Amino acid sequence: MSEPLRQEFSKGLWRENPVLVLALGLCPTLAVTTSMTNGMGMGLATMFVLFGSNLTVSSLRSVIPKKVRIPCYIVIIATFVTLVGMITSAYFPAIDDALGIFIPLIVVNCVVLGRSESFAARNPLGRSLIDALGMGVGFTVTLMALGGAREFFAAGTLFDYQIIPGWEHEFMLLKLAPGAFIMLGLFLALMNWHNARQARRQGRTYKPPAEMNCAHCKLCTGDWLKTSG
């Protein structure tokens, strides 16, 4: 793989990670990461749809009229979501039951639609496929890490296998919605700390992404009341 394609792939793993940097796809990220298995299932399902939609949109980018491009993208994405839903229902019923409505909701996942609109529609097939793989792998690894952390600290298990014997009472907070927000916040804090540390070592100033930078939030100061109308 050439250096430009390698960089295209690696950006989804860290520099432009869909969850930890771009803050996309947070609904399934918070909802289904109660276990590592669920995180992996959701990530792989999304990666399949992302790969298929990028492939199709990039191949047809010169044919799809600009005025109806978004409806066309949604139809393409919905087709691949239907396929992945049928596959999981037929061959992975446990995963299908665990993920439930969140498999059909991949249709409106901002990661998938965003890559179709901002990348696949503007780039050739090869780069679009590499972009889909990088973003898909980054999304999957992040969901698995979140699910694994929540599962381990809640029950001492990973992939439903008991890592710590004798764990009798689950720490239910991490199984519930507040636990998902807490764990995601810890992940974001750790990533920003690492990036700031790397920047100091290189003698430069680290600027957090706008979505993750407290300086861009006016909630604490009350200024949002003046601009909210």
What would you say this structure looks like, in words?
The chain has 229 residues and is mainly alpha-helical. It has one domain (3-171). Helix content is 60%, strand content 2%. The protein is built from nine helices and two strands, in the order αααααααββαα. It has helices spanning 3-10, 26-32, 36-59, 69-91, 93-99, 110-118, 125-155, 177-201, 224-227, and strands at 157-158, 161-162. The chain has a two-stranded antiparallel ribbon with strand order 1-2. β1 and β2 form a beta hairpin. It is globular, with a radius of gyration of 19 Å. The model has no long low-confidence stretch (mean pLDDT 87).
The overall number of domains is 1
Helix-strand topology string: HHHHHHHEEHH
* Alpha plus pi helix count: 9
Q: Main sheet?
A: 2 strands, antiparallel
Radius of gyration: 19 Å
Strand order of the largest sheet: 1-2
Q: Which segments are poorly predicted (pLDDT under 50) over 5 or more consecutive residues?
A: none
Structural class by helix and strand composition: mainly alpha
Mean pLDDT: 87
Task: Give me a quick take on this structure.
With 229 residues, this protein is mostly helical.
Keywords:
229 residues; mainly alpha; 2 strands
Topology diagram in text:
Layout: H1 3-10, H2 26-32, H3 36-59, H4 69-91, H5 93-99, H6 110-118, H7 125-155, E1 157-158, E2 161-162, H8 177-201, H9 224-227
Antiparallel strand pairs: 1-2
Helix pairs in contact: 1-7, 3-4, 3-6, 3-7, 4-5, 4-6
